[in-house]
Fold this protein.
Amino acid sequence: MRQPVSTHAGLLAGIAGASAVLLGAFGAHALRGVLDDHASELWRTAVNYHAWHALALVLAVGLGHGRSGRFAMAAFALGIVLFSGSLYALALGAPRWIGIITPFGGVAFISGWIALGLSLRTRGG
């Protein structure tokens, strides 16, 4: 039986997925020829992690349970903003110090996966 999903959590997951598609298309079309090879690779990496973690957010919203599930949702959303957001900014020419933020997003992603795993474990038993 499916658990009810918070309207805000479901909306957050939808926005995360839609923005990954929009930013991927923007990079592929509007930024073609504008970004150099390094910046294009940063953009692709940002979109890749953004899209995968939008899907992880959907999993956390749909399957997550309790405090761990809520933590996973927050961690995936924060990771998208910090990790992908900093890479998007760097690709667009932000100062190099913005790269200091990127690992914090990676830690948020890792924390989210661990929390999701704990949430799924405790849900079954």
Observations:
- The first helix runs from residue 7 to 30.
- The radius of gyration is 16 Å.
- Residues 45 and 87 are 8 Å apart (CA to CA).
